[in-house]
Amino acid sequence: MALKQLLITLAIAAVVLPQVTLATEYVVGDDSGWTINFDYATWAKDKEFYVGDKIVFKYPVGIHNVFKVTGSDFRDCVVPTVGNALTTGNDVVTLANPGNKWYICGVGKHCEAGGMKLAITVYPAQVWTVPAPAPASYAWVPTPSLSSYTWFRK
Protein backbone atom coordinates (compact mmCIF):
# COMPACT_ATOMS: atom_id res chain seq x y z
CA MET A 1 0.00 0.00 0.00
CA ALA A 2 2.84 2.40 0.85
CA LEU A 3 4.43 1.74 -2.54
CA LYS A 4 1.16 2.55 -4.30
CA GLN A 5 0.86 5.87 -2.43
CA LEU A 6 4.46 6.74 -3.29
CA LEU A 7 3.85 6.04 -6.98
CA ILE A 8 0.70 8.17 -6.97
CA THR A 9 2.57 11.04 -5.28
CA LEU A 10 5.39 10.83 -7.81
CA ALA A 11 2.91 10.78 -10.70
CA ILE A 12 1.15 13.89 -9.38
CA ALA A 13 4.48 15.68 -8.88
CA ALA A 14 5.52 14.82 -12.44
CA VAL A 15 2.37 16.49 -13.77
CA VAL A 16 2.23 19.48 -11.43
CA LEU A 17 5.94 20.31 -11.39
CA PRO A 18 7.15 19.63 -14.92
CA GLN A 19 9.44 22.66 -15.07
CA VAL A 20 11.54 24.60 -12.62
CA THR A 21 12.65 28.15 -13.31
CA LEU A 22 15.76 29.33 -11.54
CA ALA A 23 15.98 33.05 -10.71
CA THR A 24 18.96 35.01 -9.47
CA GLU A 25 19.06 38.29 -7.58
CA TYR A 26 21.91 40.65 -8.47
CA VAL A 27 22.93 43.67 -6.43
CA VAL A 28 23.98 46.23 -9.04
CA GLY A 29 27.63 47.07 -8.38
CA ASP A 30 27.91 44.28 -5.78
CA ASP A 31 29.32 45.71 -2.53
CA SER A 32 29.78 49.18 -4.07
CA GLY A 33 26.09 49.46 -4.92
CA TRP A 34 24.64 52.15 -7.17
CA THR A 35 27.18 54.96 -6.92
CA ILE A 36 29.24 57.40 -8.97
CA ASN A 37 32.58 56.49 -10.56
CA PHE A 38 31.86 52.78 -10.87
CA ASP A 39 32.26 50.82 -14.12
CA TYR A 40 28.85 49.19 -14.55
CA ALA A 41 29.69 47.95 -18.05
CA THR A 42 32.51 45.84 -16.62
CA TRP A 43 30.30 44.71 -13.73
CA ALA A 44 27.59 43.47 -16.13
CA LYS A 45 29.93 42.08 -18.80
CA ASP A 46 30.31 38.53 -17.42
CA LYS A 47 26.78 38.20 -16.09
CA GLU A 48 23.85 36.58 -17.86
CA PHE A 49 20.47 38.01 -16.93
CA TYR A 50 17.31 35.98 -17.53
CA VAL A 51 13.60 36.72 -17.36
CA GLY A 52 12.61 36.26 -13.73
CA ASP A 53 15.94 37.47 -12.34
CA LYS A 54 15.99 40.56 -10.13
CA ILE A 55 18.42 43.44 -10.08
CA VAL A 56 18.65 45.52 -6.92
CA PHE A 57 19.87 49.10 -6.89
CA LYS A 58 21.27 49.93 -3.43
CA TYR A 59 22.20 53.51 -2.57
CA PRO A 60 21.69 56.14 0.16
CA VAL A 61 18.14 57.54 -0.02
CA GLY A 62 18.03 61.07 -1.44
CA ILE A 63 21.51 60.85 -2.98
CA HIS A 64 20.67 58.88 -6.15
CA ASN A 65 17.70 57.46 -8.04
CA VAL A 66 17.08 55.04 -10.90
CA PHE A 67 15.26 55.60 -14.18
CA LYS A 68 14.56 52.94 -16.79
CA VAL A 69 15.28 54.60 -20.13
CA THR A 70 15.53 53.93 -23.86
CA GLY A 71 18.79 53.10 -25.59
CA SER A 72 19.21 56.62 -26.98
CA ASP A 73 18.39 58.24 -23.62
CA PHE A 74 20.95 55.91 -22.05
CA ARG A 75 23.61 56.88 -24.57
CA ASP A 76 22.95 60.62 -24.09
CA CYS A 77 22.11 60.45 -20.34
CA VAL A 78 18.68 61.99 -20.93
CA VAL A 79 16.43 61.85 -17.86
CA PRO A 80 12.81 61.19 -18.87
CA THR A 81 10.37 64.04 -18.30
CA VAL A 82 7.60 61.50 -17.92
CA GLY A 83 8.11 58.48 -15.74
CA ASN A 84 8.72 57.65 -12.16
CA ALA A 85 12.13 57.48 -10.61
CA LEU A 86 12.89 54.63 -8.25
CA THR A 87 13.95 56.30 -5.01
CA THR A 88 13.83 53.84 -2.10
CA GLY A 89 17.56 53.16 -1.95
CA ASN A 90 16.77 49.45 -2.23
CA ASP A 91 15.00 49.32 -5.56
CA VAL A 92 14.23 45.81 -6.78
CA VAL A 93 13.55 45.44 -10.50
CA THR A 94 12.20 42.10 -11.71
CA LEU A 95 13.33 41.42 -15.25
CA ALA A 96 10.00 40.49 -16.82
CA ASN A 97 10.81 40.48 -20.54
CA PRO A 98 13.78 39.54 -22.70
CA GLY A 99 15.71 42.23 -24.53
CA ASN A 100 18.02 45.16 -23.88
CA LYS A 101 17.40 47.20 -20.72
CA TRP A 102 18.93 50.54 -19.77
CA TYR A 103 19.03 52.33 -16.41
CA ILE A 104 20.50 55.68 -15.38
CA CYS A 105 20.71 57.93 -12.33
CA GLY A 106 18.73 61.12 -12.91
CA VAL A 107 20.37 63.21 -10.19
CA GLY A 108 22.55 66.10 -11.38
CA LYS A 109 25.36 64.95 -13.68
CA HIS A 110 25.64 61.50 -12.07
CA CYS A 111 24.98 59.74 -15.38
CA GLU A 112 27.25 61.69 -17.72
CA ALA A 113 30.04 62.69 -15.31
CA GLY A 114 29.76 59.92 -12.72
CA GLY A 115 29.08 56.96 -15.00
CA MET A 116 25.86 55.96 -13.24
CA LYS A 117 24.37 54.03 -16.13
CA LEU A 118 23.72 50.34 -16.58
CA ALA A 119 22.95 48.47 -19.80
CA ILE A 120 22.05 44.78 -19.71
CA THR A 121 20.65 42.14 -22.02
CA VAL A 122 17.91 39.93 -20.61
CA TYR A 123 17.56 36.44 -22.08
CA PRO A 124 14.42 34.26 -22.08
CA ALA A 125 13.86 32.40 -18.83
CA GLN A 126 16.10 29.47 -18.07
CA VAL A 127 13.75 26.54 -17.70
CA TRP A 128 14.88 23.21 -16.42
CA THR A 129 12.68 20.27 -17.23
CA VAL A 130 12.25 17.92 -14.35
CA PRO A 131 12.54 14.38 -15.66
CA ALA A 132 9.64 12.06 -15.07
CA PRO A 133 10.29 9.55 -12.36
CA ALA A 134 11.76 6.31 -13.59
CA PRO A 135 9.33 3.43 -13.60
CA ALA A 136 9.72 1.13 -10.68
CA SER A 137 11.64 -1.94 -11.61
CA TYR A 138 10.62 -5.19 -10.11
CA ALA A 139 12.68 -8.30 -10.28
CA TRP A 140 10.33 -11.19 -10.25
CA VAL A 141 12.05 -14.15 -8.75
CA PRO A 142 10.23 -17.41 -9.25
CA THR A 143 9.46 -19.20 -6.07
CA PRO A 144 10.25 -22.88 -5.96
CA SER A 145 7.35 -25.22 -6.25
CA LEU A 146 7.12 -28.95 -6.18
CA SER A 147 6.50 -29.08 -9.90
CA SER A 148 9.89 -27.58 -10.64
CA TYR A 149 11.83 -30.37 -8.99
CA THR A 150 12.55 -33.83 -10.18
CA TRP A 151 12.13 -36.47 -7.56
CA PHE A 152 14.13 -39.67 -7.53
CA ARG A 153 13.32 -42.83 -5.69
CA LYS A 154 15.72 -45.37 -4.52
Describe this entry's structure for a reader.
The chain is built from 3 helices and 9 strands. It has a single domain (18-125), classed as Immunoglobulin-like, CATH 2.60.40. It is an alpha/beta fold. The strands form 3 sheets. Strands 3-8-7-5 form a 4-stranded mixed β-sheet. This is Phytocyanin domain-containing protein. It holds the Pfam family Cu_bind_like. Its main location: membrane.
Strand residue percentage: 15-25%
User: What is the second-level CATH architecture?
Assistant: Sandwich
Instruction: Determine the CATH superfamily.
Output: Cupredoxins -  blue copper proteins
CATH top level?
Answer: Mainly Beta
Q: How many H/I helical runs?
A: 3
Q: Could you tell me the mean pLDDT? A: 84
Judging from the principal axes of the Cα atoms, what is the shape? elongated
Strand adjacency order, main sheet: 3-8-7-5
Rg from Cα = 29 Å
Which parts are unreliable, with pLDDT below 50 for 5 consecutive residues or more? none
Count of spatially separate domains: 1
Q: Structural class given helices, strands, pairing? A: alpha/beta
- Can you give the helix content as a percent range? 10-25%
- Multimerization status: single chain
Largest sheet: 4 strands, mixed
What is the first-to-last residue Cα distance? 48 Å
CATH-derived topology: Immunoglobulin-like
Helix-strand topology string: HEEHEEEHEEEE
Number of strands: 9
Organism: Kingdonia uniflora
Signal peptide: 1-23
GO cellular component, one term: plasma membrane
Subcellular location: Membrane
